[in-house]
Structure formats: structure tokens, C-alpha cells
Design a protein that fits this description.
alpha+beta, globular, five-stranded mixed beta sheet
């Protein structure tokens, strides 16, 4: 098994899909000793398990660390866990239900729709800069700044402070990789302390001087006598930044890398921009930005005849599920006109990505603007992949116009 699944291997990270094919052929669930997780590679299983309430993103709503057979995180990591464990991504009912309901009152479809002109304007400004320079790094010049600017605009973070967000997010997200090092944890803790302190000050300002931003709406969100605590608001804002841009950044860069390697599909898209909605979905399926999503086993479950006991951890392989031939016709073929495309890039069940509609707006805006304004854009050098496997992307994507 270790020879098939090598998340620390640069070659595997660059192209995990042949290994996934072998994993699917070898069975429905596989024990992976280096991370002590059960790997789940099939679409039907991943999709069902995301909705299975015998699993959880946390176990602390039912068990202590000791009862669950786990060791509590070291005390020096506490600022990261306080921040992370109060966000809806890592909570279960009833806390998840209550907080998501309150956040949804602030982060409404109308809020997202109202952002579309801003997203289009920001995309146009960034692409204009790339055109003026005759090219550049698509990751640093377009993919990264757009979603960060959108989230910052939405939260009402002053423009001079926005440069802080991406480094904080990158350091915090390092903890979501497999077996993070102590140095990674130290950086995540520092970022958690600094980002939390920053948001605490901003929330205090909005309490006395509310605006039209999401932080003001989160303060005002009220349901059946309930409000978000300060920590819940801080954790929600950080989650919106982290989850709200990491996937969009990598879908943009990975998506263009995919298009450059499929020139006939890129030519079809350039000839017919009406393909853009299905193209965005297909790019998210074909090269999934979040390759793995983990779940704790709260009650014994059986997968393909294998009993996975309470206390175990499942690694749901999104990248493999999105290439499963049992669900997708000819899954290793990029087809920008694919309409039967129920990919699970945004997850499923109660933890389905809250920001999915905004991510789709951002992707349509940046891809659309580049198709219109940079129709001759082409690759200027081979990209190098970052070492991270879970959140998978390139260091840079050099292009010329």
C-alpha cells in the first residue's frame, strides 16, 4: 500500500491519478500505516460517507480524547485548535447546526450575488495588469490576489492590512497536511494568535461603528435568542478566508495548467465562451484542489466487508473519487462540455462548502476575463508543485501573452 500512496513524494503529488486508479482496483478501503488512516478511493463510498452521521469532523462532542483512544494536542498548540475547533468545518451538531444557521443569516445568496460586480471589477484590474506586463506568474498575479481581495472586501478589512491575510492563511493551512512538523505547528500557532488578535480589534470597531460588511452582519445575526460568540465570529472569518481562497487559488492555477496541456480543449473554450460554466466544473473535477478530506469514525462501520472501528480516521480521497469510472464516463479525459458532472470538490452533507457559490463566481470571472483579454496566453515554463498533498497546487505558473 505504501508504494501506491506516497503523499510525500514529489512525483506522486505532481500526478496522483495513476496511483488512485490502482487503489480503486485493489479495493474499497486500505490501511495506510504512516498516517494511521483508512484510505477510501471510490466515488460511491466517499459520497455516502460524507453524509454518514456515524462519522464526524470532530469527536469531542461525544468523547474525550482519552475515551476515543487519542492523545490531546500539546498545550502549546492551543491557539491553533481554539481557532480551528470553533469553525463550522470542524464542528458537529448541535454546535455546527447553530453556528451554520447564524452564519447563513449573514452570508446569504443575496450577499454573494451582490459581490459579483466587485469580483468582475477586481478580475478585470488584475488581468489588465498582466496584459500590461506582457505576462507574469498567473498564480501570484491573478489566482492568489483575486479571492483574497474578495474575502477582504466582504469582511470589510481595510486595504492597507490585506497583505497580511495570505501569509496568515498559508501558515494556518499547513496544519491540514499529513503529519505536520513541529515547525509547521509553530508557524500555525503564531498566525492563529496574530490573526485572532487582529479580528478581535476589527470586531470591536464594528460593534461601535457597523458597516455593510460581513463582520457587521455576523455581529447582527440573531436567531431565537442566540448570537455568535466572539470566538465563533473570529473562527468563522478565518475559515471564510482559508477555505474561501485556498481552493479557488489552486483551481485557477491547476485549471490553466490543465488547459495548457489539453490544447484542443483550450481552443474549443476560446472559440466558445458559452462553455465556461461546464468548463469550470470540469476543471474542478479533473484536477481537484483539495485531494483529501478526513473524518473520525464515531461508531464502528463496515466498508466493503472491512470493519473500521470507532476511534479510527478515514481519509476520503476526493481526487480519486472525481476520477472514478464507475461514476464518470471516461474520467481521465478532460471534457469541458461535460454536463453529467456531480463532482464532490465542494464536499457533501452538512459540511458542504458554504462558499461554493462565491467560488464559482470568482472562477467564472477570472477565467472569463483571461479568455477575453488574453486570448493568446501560453505557458512560459514548467510549473513546480508545492510539497503539500492535501491542498495541492503549484509554486508558480509562468505565462506569456
Amino acid at each position: 500500500m505504501d508504494a501506491l500512496f506516497e503523499p510525500w513524494s514529489p512525483a506522486f503529488v505532481a500526478d496522483p491519478y495513476p496511483a488512485y486508479e490502482r487503489l480503486r482496483a485493489d479495493g474499497r478501503v486500505h490501511w495506510f500505516e504512516p498516517t494511521r488512516q483508512w484510505l477510501v478511493p471510490h466515488y460511491a463510498d466517499v459520497s455516502a460517507l460524507l453524509r454518514d452521521r456515524r462519522l464526524g469532523r470532530t469527536y469531542l462532542h461525544r468523547f474525550s480524547h482519552e475515551e476515543f483512544g487519542r492523545t490531546a494536542p500539546p498545550p502549546e498548540h492551543e491557539p491553533f485548535h481554539t481557532l480551528n475547533d470553533n469553525g463550522i468545518l470542524d464542528l458537529e451538531a448541535p454546535d455546527h447546526t447553530r453556528i451554520r444557521r447564524l452564519v447563513t443569516k449573514a452570508f446569504t445568496p443575496r450577499t454573494v450575488a451582490a459581490l459579483e460586480p466587485t469580483v468582475r471589477r477586481l478580475a478585470a484590474e488584475l488581468v489588465a495588469g498582466l496584459k500590461k506586463d506582457g505576462g507574469g506568474d498567473l498564480l501570484a498575479d491573478i489566482a492568489e490576489p483575486l479571492p483574497v481581495a474578495v474575502i477582504a472586501e466582504m469582511l470589510g478589512i481595510p486595504e492597507p492590512d490585506r497583505y497580511l491575510l495570505r501569509p496568515w492563511s498559508a501558515d494556518i493551512c499547513g496544519m491540514f497536511e499529513l503529519n505536520p512538523s513541529e515547525e509547521t505547528a509553530r508557524k500555525a500557532v503564531t498566525a492563529s494568535v496574530e490573526f485572532s488578535a487582529y479580528l478581535r480589534t476589527l470586531i470591536a470597531q464594528r460593534r461601535t461603528d457597523p458597516g455593510e460588511d460581513l463582520i457587521s452582519a455576523l455581529i447582527a445575526a440573531y436567531d431565537e435568542g442566540d448570537r455568535l460568540s466572539e470566538q465563533e465570529m473570529i473562527s468563522t472569518c478565518v475559515l471564510l478566508l482559508n477555505a474561501g481562497h485556498e481552493a479557488t487559488v489552486n483551481t485557477t492555477a491547476n485549471g490553466w495548467w490543465t488547459l495548457f496541456r489539453h490544447p484542443e480543449q483550450l481552443a474549443a473554450l476560446r472559440a466558445d465562451h458559452a462553455l465556461l460554466p461546464t468548463a469550470v466544473e470540469e476543471l474542478m473535477r479533473f484536477d481537484t484542489p483539495l485531494q483529501m478530506f478526513e473524518r473520525w469514525v464515531l461508531d464502528d462501520i463496515e466498508i466493503g466487508g472491512t470493519v473500521v472501528p470507532r476511534g479510527a480516521e478515514l481519509a476520503l480521497l476526493f481526487g480519486s473519487a472525481n476520477r472514478d469510472p464507475e461514476r464518470f464516463d471516461d474520467p481521465d479525459r478532460l471534457d469541458l462540455s461535460r454536463t453529467d458532472n456531480p463532482h464532490i470538490t465542494f464536499g457533501a452533507g452538512i459540511h458542504f462548502c458554504l462558499g461554493a457559490p462565491l467560488a464559482r463566481i470568482e472562477l467564472a470571472a477570472s477565467f472569463g476575463e483571461l479568455l477575453r483579454e488574453a486570448p493568446t496566453m501560453h505557458l512560459a515554463g514548467e510549473p513546480e508543485w508545492k510539497p503539500g498533498y492535501v491542498i495541492r497546487g503549484v509554486h508558480a505558473l509562468p505565462v506569456e501573452l
